């Protein structure tokens, strides 16, 4: 206990010497943790955008002979899927269509699309509500009971058309029978997304889009499953796959959806289980690259902190040889001296890390106030137009643990060297 008191008094007495070490620790930890929090937030935002685009945490597709990715009597299959999944799972049909089969027109201006998605808004409202709407939104649709001819479009497409929420635009669509169909639709929402998951994507009512494309009422080509507020692990996904295999004829597990889609044909009705990650091979490469860059930055910063504090502490300990000699002369054991100096450095590191954590919180709170939507194609990393840093406990603890342990080892090495000399020799040393 007395060693802690001596260490604390030493820190207070020599505070001017330790200010620089405290600041190095504080700012180094703060920058490392902020980089981890921002990158984690960006990746989570990207994953949520992908969930909206692909319909949730995983999707089920069906194929048999020429009926490729076609689900007939989808309601019956929907009930089968619900029967083996947790009650909090949102199971919803979707109808996805190549947007190049149609285009929007408004006051003589044409806007092409990449993907049309037919959704059941009542089922998917929690998922679609996480889009950043600049005009209108999900509530506009829910409040218009019975209206089916609505659409959500991206802000860049709305600007191209010169249209706003509430305007009626024309959808010209080549139907399943290769007939040109023209229908009027009302813009119920304009979302702020210029990323690969949003700019050329539009969302329609599930039944309306099927009718416009001349598909039957009992038809769908996706059954999507979403678990709101949950992070579904790979182990859980495999459990869901095994459960579904008991009620549906499932194709083997795939890590890339093309492994299922590229099969020539199936003699019997065969279902593909497509987890979110199976759609995101290119995105996952980008995420891994981001992780690698952030990890490299954090490792370099951690090494700088350890090297800076460790080497400076070594100099300080060597300058305190006389003090160490006095400790030995009054009968203080060598292990007690080592413990005192390690406690002193530990207190400094803990206070620096705590200050760094607080500084990280302040910085992340400030940066989350800024609107970054002006950066082209950066929307995929934003929530409500802002960066939303997220705490990654494991990585943050690893950084703090590495800084503390490695620095203490460096201090221990210098301390063990300093206590090898005799008390008389130590007392004879002058600073």
Describe this structure as you would to a colleague.
The protein is of the alpha+beta class. It has helices at 2-13, 15-54, 74-84, 121-128, 138-142, 155-161, 206-212, 234-245, 258-261, 281-319, 321-329, 334-367, 393-418, 423-428, and strands at 58-64, 67-68, 71-72, 90-98, 102-106, 109-112, 115-119, 133-136, 150-154, 168-174, 180-191, 201-205, 219-220, 222-226, 270-275. The strands form two sheets. Strands 1, 2, 4, 5, 6, 7, 8, 9, 10, 11, 12, 14 and 15 form a 13-stranded mixed sheet that branches. A two-stranded antiparallel ribbon has the order 3-13. Helix 2 runs antiparallel to helix 10 and helix 10 (281-319) packs parallel to helix 13 (393-418).
In brief, what are we looking at here?
By secondary structure, the chain is α+β, with helices and mostly antiparallel strands.
**N-to-C SSE string, H for helix and E for strand:** HHEEEHEEEEHEHEHEEEHEEHHEHHHHH
Separation, N- and C-terminal Cα atoms: 29 Å
- If you compute it from the alpha carbons, what radius of gyration comes out, rounded to the nearest whole angstrom? 31 Å
Give the low-confidence spans: none
Number of distinct helices: 14
Q: What structural class is derived from the secondary structure elements? A: alpha+beta
Major beta sheet summary: 13 strands, mixed
Number of strands: 15
Helix content: 40-55%
